[in-house]
C-alpha cells in the first residue's frame, strides 16, 4: 500500500517552496550589490527585477499556502525536486535579461548547470559579461554545491527530525553529526573556512600575475566557487587556460580534490584521526581508479613531453574525476586527443568523487563496493556450500558489506548507466557522433561540465531540455525525482 | 634574345625560392582563428597573422614575458608576448564596460607549445588597428518600468506579510 499526498500536504509543500524562493531572492542581493558597486546599470535592473519577482512569488506562496503540517517524508521528495527546478527557473531570469543568451531555454540551461554544479555553458560573449552576472553564475554553483535545500534548512528551519529527508533527498547519504541541522551547519563552516583561505591565496596569486586587486579578488572568489564546489564555470571564455599559469592549475587541483572529498572525511581528519585519509575506502578506490585511468591516458598521449602530458592529460583527468569540469585546453583540443584518452575521461566522469561531497556521478564508495561485492561473490563460490562469508570495508570505521546495501548500489549504478545511455542515444539520433554524444551525456548527468563541443547555443532545443533533465536528476541522484513522480502518479490512480 | 629572357626568369625564380619576401609569408598565413583552431596541424609552428580584440588582463608569465588573450570572431587564444614593451600601444582591454583595442598580431602558432605546453601564439609583431572605447549601456525603458513596478509591489507585499505575521502572533 502506498500513501498519497492530500490538500494539506500540498499546502505545506508550497509553503516551504515559498520559503526557499524567498531564500533565493536574498541570494540575488549579492550580485545586485556588485552591479551597484561597479555601476552596471543594465545588470542593476536585471537583478532588481529578479529579486522582486522571486520575493513576490515566494511571499505569495507563503501567504496563500499556510504550513498545515509538520514536514514529513512525503513532503521532502516534492520539496527537493521542485525546489531545484524552481530555483533554476528563477535563477535564469537575470541571466536571460542580460542578452547574453539566445533565449530563456539557454538561460535556464545555464542556471541548472550552475545549481547542479555541472559547468556546461551556453553563454555568448562571456568575455564581455558583467561582473554581477558572472557573480550570479558562480554563486549558483556555490549554493547548489552546498545544496539549495541544505542551505534553507540550516538557515530557515528550526525543525530537527523531519528535515532528514530533505538532506538525503539532495543526494547526501551520510550524516556527519547526530543532528541534521548541526550537520548542515558543519558543512557550511568547513566551506567558509576553505572559502576564506582559498580566496585569499587566489587573490594574492592573481594580483601578483598582474590583475588589479578587485579583479583578482573577484576572479579568485569565482575560481574558488567553481573548483571547491566542483562546478567548472569560469569568468572568461577560455576557462582556466585564460590565466596561462601552471601554478594556478595546481591550486585548482587542490581545491577540486577538497571539494570531491566526503565532508564526513573532512570532519574525521579535522577532529578525530588524521590517519583516516590513508585507510579510507573512498580514498583508496580513488587512487586505484585514478591511476588506472591515468595509465590509459599516458599510453594514449605517449609522444608528448611530460609537461604536455601533465597539462593536457593529468589536469583534464583530475578535473573529470572530481566532477569539476575545468579545462586548460583550447577550442577543439579535447576533441583532437585520441579516443582512448576520451574514454579514460568518460570513465573518470562516470565515477565522480566521494559521497556527501559536491560531486556527481556514481561516486567512489559505490564503485568500490561494486568491485568488492564482485570479488566477494567469487570467493563465496570458491568456499564450501554451507560456509558463510562476509567482507568488510573501512570508511571512518570498519563496516560489513550487507546484501541490502549492494542491491541499492546496483540500482543506483544501473540508473546512472541508463541515463548516460539515453542521453547518448538522443545525441546520436540528432546527428552527433557516438563518442561525442556519450561524452556530453555523461558530462551532463554526472555534473562535470567538460564538453566536446556539442553544448553550444546552436544545438537543438530538444537536446538542451534533455541535458537540463539529466543535470537535474543526476544531481539529485534520481530518488527524490522518481518518488515525487510516483506520488503524482498515485494521485491520478485515485 | 630568348635565352636572355629565360635567364632573367630563372634568376627571378631562384630569388623567389631562396629569399621569400615577408609579404609572401604574410599573405599565405593571413587567416581566421577559427580556421587555425579547427586545423591546428596545418598551421603548427607557422607564422600566422590574426585580427581580434584584446580582452581581460595583461598577465605576467613565469618567464620574462606577458600574456594577452585575443577574441576573434567568437574564438579565443592566448598570445605570449616576450617583451612587455611590445604592448605599449595597447590601452583598452575588453570587458563589460570596455571594447578592447582591435589588434593585428603576427606570431608563430604552436599546437603544443614546447615552452608552455598549451596551444598558443608567440608574438612577433603587433599593430593596433582600432582603438578601444568605453561602451555605453542601453537599458530598455520597458525593463526599467517593470523593474520599478515589481520593486514597489514587492515592498507592499513584504509590509502586508509582516503585518499579518504580527497580527497572527498577537491573536
Task: Fill in the keyword field for this structure.
A: 494 residues, mainly alpha, two-stranded antiparallel sheet, globular, B: 171 residues, alpha+beta, OB fold (Dihydrolipoamide Acetyltransferase, E2P), five-stranded mixed barrel, 31% strand
Write the layout of secondary structure elements.
The complex is a heterodimer of chains A (494) and B (171).
Chain A: H1 7-27, H2 29-37, H3 41-64, H4 73-97, H5 104-115, H6 131-146, H7 148-156, H8 164-169, H9 180-209, H10 213-228, H11 246-260, H12 263-271, H13 276-279, H14 281-300, H15 306-321, H16 333-336, H17 339-351, H18 364-382, E1 392-395, E2 397-400, H19 403-429, H20 434-445, H21 461-476, H22 479-493
Antiparallel strand pairs in A: 1-2
Chain B: H1 2-18, H2 22-29, H3 33-38, H4 40-43, E1 46-60, E2 66-72, E3 75-81, E4 98-99, E5 102-110, E6 120-130, E7 133-134, H5 141-170
Parallel strand pairs in B: 3-6
Antiparallel strand pairs in B: 1-2, 1-5, 2-3, 4-7, 5-6
3D structure, described in words:
The complex is a heterodimer of chains A (494) and B (171). Chain A has 494 residues and is mainly α. Chain A has a domain at 1-170. Helix content of chain A is 68%, strand content 2%. Chain A has helices at 7-27, 29-37, 41-64, 73-97, 104-115, 131-146, 148-156, 164-169, 180-209, 213-228, 246-260, 263-271, 276-279, 281-300, 306-321, 333-336, 339-351, 364-382, 403-429, 434-445, 461-476, 479-493; strands at 392-395, 397-400. Chain A has a two-stranded antiparallel sheet. In chain A, a hairpin with a 1-residue loop joins strand 1 and strand 2 (397-400). The longest helix of chain A has 30 residues, at 180-209. The termini of chain B are far apart. Residues 17-28 of chain B have low confidence and may be disordered. Chain B has helices spanning 2-18, 22-29, 33-38, 40-43, 141-170, and strands at 46-60, 66-72, 75-81, 98-99, 102-110, 120-130, 133-134. Chain B contains 5 helices and 7 strands; from the N terminus they run H-H-H-H-E-E-E-E-E-E-E-H. The longest helix of chain B has 30 residues, at 141-170. Chain B is elongated. Chain B is an alpha+beta fold. Chain B has a 5-stranded mixed β-barrel with strand order 1-2-3-6-5. A two-stranded antiparallel sheet of chain B has the order 4-7. Chain B has 2 domains: 22-134, Beta Barrel (OB fold (Dihydrolipoamide Acetyltransferase, E2P)); 140-171.
